[in-house]
Specification:
2 domains; two-stranded antiparallel sheet; 329 residues; Rossmann fold; alpha/beta; 39% helix
Length: 329
Amino acid sequence: MVFTHPSVLWLLPLALLPILLERSHTRSYSWVEMLPHDALSDLIGLMLKVLASIALACIIIGLSDPHTLEQKVEKVGIGAQIALVLDRSASMDDPFAGGTASGNVGETKSAAASRLMTEFVNARENDMIGITTFSNSAMYVLPLTESREAILAAIQATSGNALFQTNIGAGLTGAIAQFEHVPDSGSRAIILISDGAGQIDGVRQQKIKAWLSDLNVTLYWIVLRQPNGISIFDPKYEDWKEVQLPPAQVELHNFFKTLNTPFQAYEADDPKSLETAILDINKKEKKPITYLEKIPGKNFTQLSYFIALLMIALLLGVKYLENKTWRSA
């Protein structure tokens, strides 16, 4: 048991006042020695004092806000630790290249990504999920957490105003860093969703490669194609060194293929193909994991006030009977 305001407990000795102080009577007698000794009345009088003391003690304890601490229970489930990396460059607010095929006419890439990631989270109960967005730099939206309410709220928040740059390297390093201080559950993955690619310098490439290997993280990259955009799977880009100016997407794809950890790339040119890619990731990342479930502590403030209210109600009831008795005498 812990208290939010423990200093209030110094007032607890005041709860003894009803027991220590004698009650002043409204009736006086010429010679009380004439009255016979009544043990039952003495017992009832003591009980009333105890009730008053309990009421005072409960009020003081309630003011101190008593509660138990949060507990963590180790459990085994199916899921993963997943870091979502979402592109928030201005082009993400454009419609898909093949928008009409899915029936979601006019749906922007950012809106489709938000909608489908919400469905992804709702379908997975045991995951720890963190969120990072990027445009000209990385923005840490949410660390790895089990809270579905926080995750869903963070996904909705990623649909805000966008900027014009695509610093994909900053987004990746920011997402990988989320795994550094979290115990490995047995399955870790990054889901990178972008509609383009920026240049990643050699130093950052080596850092990303080493981090993914050291932290045992799988990378999934979903490329949202621009209208009439190139395909990273186009055979003519297989030997990209023969191309004078290789497209950024192709160069980044070839870098990802050199990673020492598992990597899978997808292309999506409409909401339906994006949904297919996310469903495939959903199937692949359902592995047995060990995780800690947080059990919130219990707050006893309301219980303390309820007991105090009950004691006061009993005292008022006895007082009512006492007054009624005197009036009928």
